[in-house]
């Protein structure tokens, strides 16, 4: 797809040749028609040029870590960025100069792509495409602006595949870490506020860590196992598919299967007749749940282990000051600081993966976590005063 500016008019037909067709003109950079771009324009164009080159390199690096269709898609995106690069080269002409470094975010994305690849980098690339300013830039063509919008959706689709593959285990890990951070910080603050001794707070924190980790792991195992069993229960029986050749074609009871699965009576009759007419040994009554549905839930053991380990690691953080011998408000302050940093990290990670603002998610995470801890601390003060 051409991305250079569209010509406003063609070269007029030769008057000496009546009826001669117009010859389309080739877009000419401003520097070639006597108009020198301003220094500000040159700087802006060179910056766009550097960013396009950097983005193309990111897609090539991601493609080098992929195979099959995903690799082809990423290489096609790199080729589209190369066309955009050529647009800025045409505008700059002899002012292109030595290549500049791309935007720091794009360079960081390239570094991550070369070393890791994966869904995190795709999520970052999705946000990078969404930041495009071509729609409001007078020197970028409408086609380039449209390209960038479509690129965002292409990368979103690739990132969604990765999210589906990791979502079950990742969800358990994020929720486990967040629950460990918040619940154990709240537990420690509540007990500490009640006036309990330092050793009591420490033992309570360790007990909360172990009990919470075991509970989270067991809960995740049961939850994911139940979800997968529900999916398996929806899969048609192989014996039912093997019985298709012996069905009474006139009665066509196969249509009842499709009506039970939500089809309208006429549509079910038509589909059943088509299945019977084209039956082979590979024919199944209805397709099983898609692979993506199983991938979305993950494995029960993987989710349980992730939840256990991440809850334990999260719950350990507010206990660290007490393990180091700190007491009183110093221990509380250090525990809150460490938990706050961890909550910011988990919130930003979820924001990156979901394609939303990492800062917004991080601040939301810390607000919820500290809100719960503050409420428990206040209750500890009340109970401590009452019991005391």
TrEMBL record:
It comes from the Bacteria. It is found in: Endomembrane system. Residues 1-40 are annotated as: Disordered. Coiled coil: none annotated. It comes from Cellulosimicrobium funkei. GO terms for molecular function: manganese ion transmembrane transporter activity. InterPro entries: Ccc1_fam, Ferritin-like_SF, Ferritin_CCC1_N. The lineage of its organism: Bacteria, Bacillati, Actinomycetota, Actinomycetes, Micrococcales. The keyword RNA-binding does not apply. PANTHER family: FE(2+)/MN(2+) TRANSPORTER PCL1. This is Rubrerythrin family protein.
